[in-house]
Amino acid sequence: QVQLVESGGGLVQPGGSLRLSCTASGSIYNIYNMGWYRQAPGKQRELVARITLGGSTNYADSVKGRFTISRGNARNTVYLQMNSLKPEDTAVYYCNTYPSTPQYWGQGTQVTVSS
């Protein structure tokens, strides 16, 4: 059973940066396209960024130019570099395959952008 564990969230001021990490218990990144998702209070979960097996990336319009998804050198890590953070980026961030796989949802990592 593959487990995905997200880390790197926290409290940051507007304009700040955070780097989220997603580590899998098994090597799934060479099998699946991967995505970072987020869910803000009272809102549906949304796709923020995705990366294909070939390394192509795609971003939601709301984060384009500010967020960067990448794969680590290790086969079991995916990152989300978040710059120029805004209060509206506040959410719980999750990683999963793309399209998402229901049994792979983890606990997520909380990102709070506030002064």
What does this molecule look like?
- The radius of gyration is 13 Å and the shape is globular.
- 0% of the residues lie in helices and 45% in strands.
- The protein is an all-beta fold and 115 residues long.
- The protein has strands spanning 4-7, 10-12, 18-24, 34-39, 46-51, 57-59, 67-71, 77-82, 91-97, 109-113.
- The chain has no helices and 10 strands.
- Strands 2-10-9-4-5-6 form a 6-stranded mixed β-sheet, with no helix packed on it. The protein has a 4-stranded antiparallel β-sheet with strand order 1-3-8-7, with no helix packed on it.
- The N and C termini lie far apart (40 Å).
- A hairpin with a 5-residue loop joins strand 5 and strand 6.
Question: Could you write a compact summary of the structure shown?
Answer:
The chain has 115 residues and is mainly beta.
What is the end-to-end distance? 40 Å
Structural class, from secondary structure content? Answer: mainly beta
Query: Could you give the count of β-strands?
Result: 10
Instruction: Supply Rg.
Output: 13 Å
Q: What's the main sheet like?
A: 6 strands, mixed
- How much strand content do the residues show? over 45%
Widest beta sheet: strand line-up: 2-10-9-4-5-6
Number of helices: 0
Which descriptor suits the 3D outline?
Answer: globular
Q: Compute the average pLDDT.
A: 93
What string gives the helices and strands in order?
A: EEEEEEEEEE
What percentage of residues falls in helices of 4 or more residues?
A: under 10%
Poorly predicted regions are none
